[in-house]
Write a structure and sequence with these properties.
GO terms for molecular function: magnesium ion binding; phosphopentomutase activity. This protein has twelve helices and 13 strands. By secondary structure, it is α/β, with parallel strands linked by helices. It folds into two domains: about 260 residues, Alkaline Phosphatase, subunit A (3-Layer(aba) Sandwich), CATH 3.40.720; about 100 residues, Phosphopentomutase (Alpha-Beta Plaits). The longest helix is centred in the last third of the chain and has 19 residues.
């Protein structure tokens, strides 16, 4: 019987373009394989042992004859390719409409609402990434106090302010004010507030909060909460569900920080779900590879602490193919790796039509009510 689920979602680690990727401008995307090519191969022995090499050809990663985990691929039926689409679908909510309002940048009306909330001019406003926007506008921002704004081209508006210009708590409150002002206006589903620190050329993230509209349907955390399960969120995952259904949340500024927070919970949370967001990985290929390999080296620390009744799922929310110039989310399959004491090994779970199959499996394992969508693969995980 499963008593505890540890679900890791690694931001942007896609393993190949979905059939409709060309509709999103992402034909040929393969985040993990292209990252490996860029750095001359990846050293991921623990993910390799779980069966990663069976999912996609990755330089440096072998295809194990007898994996000690189960493996498969998650497809996405939702329209879109951001964290909202990925996390919500994994938890049982499929989004049928792909918004186009932010595809070319943050619209003027939304910029006006942000400028009113901050009492400052906004700069940027185009589809981009955090590192690119800080490199381009960081010094202008610090000199003039203007707010750095950009979008991922999907449902999200990002806002960044240096902690010396505005304390993080004030940044977060003003983003909350802007989110309220934009409610019902066709504005963003998510505003991400980034506090950053450091000097030009050495800027670093100092804090983050995700302000997200509530999911429009019943989610995995909802069902587990109704079954009196404990649901702990680590990293940004709590914000992506507007906190709904979670018992507690724990922020994490890095992949290592989120992993350490999870390890610390193992002796304190005997049952339920540890829902862990890992990432995003750095935008430079060498740094992204180093971060992913460091995570792989830490996995035995987790595996050694598992007990009978635990199951670990490792997946992703979308792709982020760093070989593409914009370094924005890409429309890709997500890996699915599963392990736990006394569970089956070497089972190919196949290509799942929807990531909601994972959420359905989690609620099935923890004996909660079914989600509206998704097919559980729990029986395939039981040792024969």
């Amino acid at each position: 019987m499963i008593n505890r689920v540890i679900l890791f979602v690694i931001d942007g680690v896609g393993i190949g373009s979905l059939p409709d990727a060309a509709d999103y401008g992402d034909a040929g995307a393969n985040s993990l394989a292209h990252l490996a090519d860029a750095v001359g191969g990846l050293d991921l022995p623990n993910l390799e042992a779980l069966g990663l090499g069976h999912l996609v050809q990755i330089s440096g990663v072998r295809t194990m004859a007898q994996p000690n985990g189960c493996f498969g691929r998650l497809g996405f039926a939702s329209q879109g390719k951001d964290s909202i689409a990925g996390y919500w679908e994994t938890s049982g909510v499929i989004l049928r409409a792909w918004p186009t309002r932010y595809r070319t940048g943050v619209p003027p009306d939304d910029i006006a609402a942000l400028e009113q909330a901050f009492g400052r001019k906004a700069v940027g406003a185009r589809p981009s990434s955090l590192a690119a926007m800080l490199a381009e506008y960081g010094e202008e921002h610090r000199a003039a106090g203007s707010v750095i704004v950009w979008t991922d081209g999907e449902r999200t508006c990002h806002v960044a302010v240096h902690e010396a210009v505005l304390p993080a708590a004030d940044l977060y409150q003003r983003c909350r004010d802007a989110k309220k002002a934009l409610k019902g206006s066709g504005g963003p589903i998510r505003i991400v507030a980034h506090s950053f620190a450091g000097e030009a050329g050495r800027y670093r993230a100092a804090g983050r909060t995700d302000l997200v509209s509530e999911p429009p349907g019943v989610t995995m955390p909802d069902q587990l909460n109704r079954s009196s399960q404990i649901i702990m969120g680590v990293g940004k995952v709590h914000g992506l569900f507007s906190g709904r259904g979670f018992t507690r949340s724990f922020p994490a500024a890095s992949v290592t920080g989120a992993f350490d927070e999870t390890l610390g919970m193992l002796n304190k949370v005997p049952r339920g779900l540890l829902y862990v967001s890992l990432g995003p990985l750095p935008e430079e290929a060498a740094d992204a590879a180093a971060s992913l390999q460091a995570l792989d080296r830490r996995l035995p620390d987790l595996f050694d602490r598992l007990r009978v009744g635990d199951v670990v799922f490792i997946t992703a929310d979308h792709g982020r193919d760093l070989s593409k110039p914009a370094k924005l989310p890409t429309r890709e399959y997500a890996p699915l790796l599963v392990t736990g004491p006394k569970l089956a090994q070497g089972v190919n779970l196949g290509t799942r039509a929807t990531a909601a199959d994972l959420g359905q499996t989690v609620v099935d394992a923890l004996r909660a009510e079914r989600l509206p969508v998704g097919d559980s693969f729990l029986e395939a995980l039981r040792a024969g």
